[in-house]
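Lay summary. Proteins are chains of building blocks that fold into shapes, and those shapes determine what they do. In this project we predict the shape from the chain. Here is one chain we studied, written as its sequence of building blocks.
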Amino acid sequence: MLASNEIVRKSRLVQESVRKALLNLVSIGIVSSSGSGRSSVYSLNASHYFSPALTELFKAESDRFSAILDSVRQSADGSPFFSLFYYGSVARGEDRPESDLDIGIVARLDDLASTTERIRENLRDLSERFAFVPNVVGLDFADIERLEKEADPWWKNVISEAIVLSGKRPEDAIGATGEGCG
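And here is the predicted shape, written in a compact code that computers can read:
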């Protein structure tokens, strides 16, 4: 049993969309509801014909997302970098089916182009298999210093929402020399 606000949090969907979906699912019997108004809680009707299929669908989507993140991590294996992370609508939980996956990489200037290209190349086939669009952005230590100094709005958003996949947080590159990238 979950309250609608918990479903909103877990699904990362907009509250109004969740409310409308729950009303429709209750009306056709896939979801059952207990309580009333704001104190309502919801659960999947395990005896409904579609329950096993829906359970499997949500598990498959969760497995797919985990596989995508693992693929991104593996795409950088063996490359020298300081930070590998994702940010943007996916990190905020506001992504839609047509959203791309914004991937950031921080590396030394001498390694940045080859590392960024290697990640892009390694993700090319996997992006087709898992049906996602990777958008890989590479930053070197001078870029980080400049963006921080300028209080760049894009950079502020990146550091507030970045989810690290490997290495350190991207803002930890501020003042760093790039030693130990790898």
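What the prediction tells us: The mean pLDDT is 91.
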